[in-house]
User: What shape does this take?
Amino acid sequence: MSTDRLESAVQKLKDIGIRMTPQRYAILSFLMDTLSHPTADEIYKELEPQFPSMSVATVYNNLKVFKDAGLVRELTYGDSSSRFDGNTEDHYHCICTSCGKIVDFDYEPLADLEKEAQLSTGFTIATHRLEFYGTCGAC
Ligand code: ZN
Ligand code: MN
Assistant: This one.
């Protein structure tokens, strides 16, 4: 696991005045360590044995803190629960339509495509999101 990334995330929170608590640290470290893009509920279930007094609301509040600090990306899917990604580097996702698994996929950011979208619509494009749907190797 990337200890450096975790340490620099802890430092970044400290720099913006966010106090580290054992629960906060556990949530952050879990997110930076997993490749599973968990929901808040999944994080809660994972850490609940370690922190029996922790609530799902605590997990949500912390995820919001991390998101606002730019340490975590929230992936929204309409009505279903958001998933959280501890990898904020540019990357894309392959999503299994059978089991819901999300796998990272590295590719050079498609800056040309943003430029093209901008030219053809007059929008000022800030970002884009690209996902691939299909079935994973296990399904
Ligand atoms: Zn699958
Ligand atoms: Mn990802």
Notes: The longest strand covers residues 80-85. The first helix runs from residue 3 to 15. The mean pLDDT is 93.
